[in-house]
Amino acid sequence: MNFHRKPATFVSQVSIKVENIERSIDFYEQVIGFKVWKKTDRQALFTADGQTVLLSVEQPENVIPKQGRTTGLYHFAILLPTRADLGRVFAHLLRIGYPLQGGADHWVSEAIYLADPDGNGIELYADKPSSTWRWANEEVAMSTEPLDVKGLLAEGKEEAWHGLPRGTLIGHIHLHVSELRQAEQFYTKGLGFDVVNRYGGQALFLSTGKYHHHIGLNTWNGVGAPMPPANSVGLESFTLMLPDEAAKEKVAAGLREVGASVKEENGVLMTWDPSGNRILLQIST
């Protein structure tokens, strides 16, 4: 099953704020492998296939550096089509000497972690076959085990790296929140996600369609963490794609039921989770 098309609800695009747009364009082109789809003096839109925008990067006026111990972006995750594609980008990062924050075998996927020049977290990953994922009592088993570095590099060595391949997607987003109970209610009762894994009392993972997770939430920046200033480096918003108009109406009603603010502009719903993370909701085409 494809977990990033209807009838699933999934993350389709992430928008982040940076201090220096030209530095960020260079990073996301040369290090990550995106193509610039459109740019202005303060914003750049990035694509992998030349058609679909996956990432928006903007430099706010009077921008300030990323603020610690606040809510917002933990990382956004770029899903590569195959393990070989992940191996190729891994080899590229090692070749250019870009600093990595780690790598892991999560049982459901293999992942590499790094940050952009502003400290915005990034995960590059490839899923393992969903038939190998282990489910029990509606929860999927996930772990953090050592990455098979040799095997991953060997998998990708047949071809040279030429940037992100067609078929690359935003696989999920992982957020810092101030409190898990309210966040869980917002994402489940409001947005219609299912909790598929709990990591003690500090993190939980949610999805639709039995994906391992489209959304991750944690309180690792502290329970009660404040929102960052609007002009701070970090998350601007992320976009969720809904399957149809009926789902959009159901989500709008669910959000209002849990007390969330909902606005609509040009057919796009806008809301904020209890920690101030801004979410756009659109219908899949």
UniProtKB/TrEMBL annotation:
It comes from the Bacteria. Pfam families: Glyoxalase. Keywords: Metal-binding. GO terms for molecular function: lactoylglutathione lyase activity; metal ion binding. Residues 10-127, 169-284 form the VOC domain. Coiled coil: none annotated. SUPFAM superfamilies: Glyoxalase/Bleomycin resistance protein/Dihydroxybiphenyl dioxygenase. This is VOC domain-containing protein. It comes from Geobacillus genomosp. 3. The lineage of its organism: Bacteria, Bacillati, Bacillota, Bacilli, Bacillales.
